[in-house]
Design a protein that fits this description.
Blueprint: H1 2-27, H2 30-39, E1 46-51, H3 58-78, E2 84-90, E3 94-101, H4 113-124, E4 128-132, E5 137-144
Parallel strand pairs: 1-2
Antiparallel strand pairs: 2-3, 3-5, 4-5
Helix pairs in contact: 2-3, 3-4
């Protein structure tokens, strides 16, 4: 009987932990998280354009936050930009993230770990990533919305 009770209590605790974790994920707002990253970014001014709902799926939300953080870090390390912009958009069929700067450094190392991680995250979401170094540096990402039955 004690083993059965132990199993039941452990299962109940696991369910409570999962519920709390899910509530936390729902509480994270993509726009607010990106705004917090930009508040801490002092390398150059950054413009944020955001048009997304609060209902962005967890995996898309956390991928976009991580990619934005990595892109800002790359601007500091590899750019001589005087301005950057981050655009988050939600369209009927997809989510879009665009991060660009006006830097003039032309060397683009698309095989770096940071850009490779970005590509892997987006591919895991069946999305597309396009990187351009013409007139500054630009990362343009689209992720399709899940198809609902």
């Amino acid at each position: 009987p004690l083993d059965s009770l132990d199993g039941t209590l452990n299962s109940a605790m696991d369910n409570i932990r999962k519920s709390v974790h899910d509530l936390h994920d729902e509480a994270v707002n993509l726009e607010e998280a990106v705004q917090a990253l930009l508040r801490d970014f002092t390398f150059c001014p950054v413009t944020l354009r955001c048009d997304v709902s609060r209902l962005v799926p967890r995996d898309v939300k956390y991928s976009f936050i991580s990619i934005t953080q990595e892109a800002l870090s790359n601007i500091i390390r590899h750019s001589d930009a005087t301005h950057a912009s981050v655009t988050l958009r939600e369209h009927p069929a997809l989510y879009q993230l665009c991060i660009e700067d006006n830097g003039t450094r032309t060397k683009t190392e698309e095989s770096g770990i940071g850009l490779s991680n970005m590509k892997e995250r987006i591919l895991a979401l069946n999305g597309n990533i396009h990187i351009s170094s013409d007139k500054g540096f630009k990362i343009f990402i689209t992720v399709p919305k899940e198809k609902t039955a």
